[in-house]
Amino acid sequence: MSGITLETVRKEFDAGDEQIVAVEDIDLEIRDGEFLVLVGPSGCGKTTTLRCVAGLEDVTSGHIRFGDDDVTDLRARERDVAMVFQNYALYPHMNVKQNIGFGLKLSTQLSSAEIDSRVQDVAEMLGIEDLLGQKPKELSGGQQQRVALGRAIIRDPAAFLMDEPLSNLDAKLRSQMRTELQTLQHELDVTTVYVTHDQTEAMAMGDRIAVMNDGRLQQVGTAEAVYRSPVNEFVADFIGSPSINVFDVRVDGDRLVGPGGFDYPLSDTAPIEGYDRLRAGIRPEDIDLAADGIAIETQVLEPMGNENFLYATLGDREITARIDATARPQPGDVVTVDFAESSLYLFDPDTGESLK
Ligand code: ATP
User: Fold this and answer.
1) Which residues have CB under 8 Å from 350's CB, separation 6+?
2) For ligand 1, atom 30, which residue shows the shortest CA distance?
3) Which terminus of the chain, N or C, has less C-beta within 10 A?
4) Which residue has the least CA distance to atom 17 on ligand 1?
5) Are residues 221 and 309 located together in one domain of the fold?
6) What is the domain count for the chain?
7) Structural domain range at position 41
8) pLDDT digits over 103-129, tens only?
């Protein structure tokens, strides 16, 4: 296969007397061998999009292509994709070897010896060769997820479609499996679409990230691009932890005037021509303690070891800053902070669109 293309894909569901638009006219090109992460809040349409690509849902309108082939009307089993879900879906009465080999047994003419040999190869690749005789209930969550991956890999599909495959694992194992999965995907070089609601996971894993909200695709790009150049306030807010600080400001000549005495002179007013109010955003790590600047009142200081998270108020707004580990303002202390104009984000107050 050479990539997956979604052309104005739309999926509506009948819910009694109303139509739910789960996926609203998405155009997306997933490159051959790419690891693309589809990320967004709960209910934004990620799973439905993935199910449309898999052929588990019919699209309401639009087309899906695998390479040059239009697969829109093909059924799931005709599409040569392998899915991996959150709830592993292993057969409980079969051991690991049987679970991994089962699909191959059904779908190919391979002999038992050939299947055994491929199961062995895949199990070694995943580091589970010692578990082949065990039943799923005897395995840890991480081991079960490896078996589920093994079942997908052994089929040598044209694409992997993964829906929150790591979300049942504890934090440490999840982060370990992220790295393993990424390495494996790059080794196998199989086009992969990976769904998660976790932006940290998306940033860590994706060659590119596709951010969705409310059934619509917001932005597609590398982790750096969606982080540093978000197309709108939604993407700026969704990507990054702790989240970007955003507040309303009034434009007064070349100055932005906002909550708690916020008064920031701009050297470049070109992007905001014609606006008398805006939404202004500043990432926590772009805020620095400064001798002179904007006064904020400390609420809580969270030491992180290598840095501190400062939760403060700017007038009636809450504001978060990532500051030096040696700085120790106490609750109630007023500190002054500053930031570079280049790190300021400005959004249209009505559409949320980025202005610079
Ligand atoms: P989550 O992360 O919570 O799984 P999601 O982003 O994957 O969310 P979807 O599961 O794709 O979102 O759902 C998108 C919208 O479509 C939601 O409003 C959901 O309620 C609706 N929806 C999904 N499947 C159906 C269905 N079979 N019938 C009716 N509505 C559905």
Assistant:
1) none
2) 13
3) C
4) 43
5) no
6) 2
7) 4-238
8) 887 777 888 899 999 999 999 888 899
Read off the CATH number of the domain in which 311 is found: 2.40.50.140
- Residues in contact with 72: Cβ distance below 8 Å, sequence separation at least 6, in sequence order: 59, 62, 63, 64
Question: Which residue has a Cα nearest atom 16 of ligand 1?
Answer: 22
- Ligand 1 pocket at CB < 6 A: 13, 15, 20, 22, 40, 42-48, 197
Pocket test for ligand 1, best of 47, 49, 56 (most atoms within 8 A of CB): 47
What pLDDT sits at residue 299?
A: 97
The CA-atom distances, in angstroms, between 78 and each of 71, 157, 194 are: 9, 11, 20
Per-residue pLDDT reduced to its tens digit, 210-259 = 999 999 999 999 999 999 999 999 999 999 999 999 999 999 999 999 99
Distance 42 CA to ligand 1 centre (A): 8
Asked whether the beta carbons of 23 and 64 are under 8 A apart, the reply is no
User: What's the CA-to-centroid distance between 43 and ligand 1, angstroms?
Assistant: 5
Distance between Cα 54 and ligand 1 center (Å): 15
| 31-90 per-position pLDDT tens digit | 999 999 999 999 999 999 999 999 999 999 999 999 999 999 999 989 989 998 877 788
Determine the Cα–Cα distance for residues 249 and 322; give it in Å rounded to an integer. 22
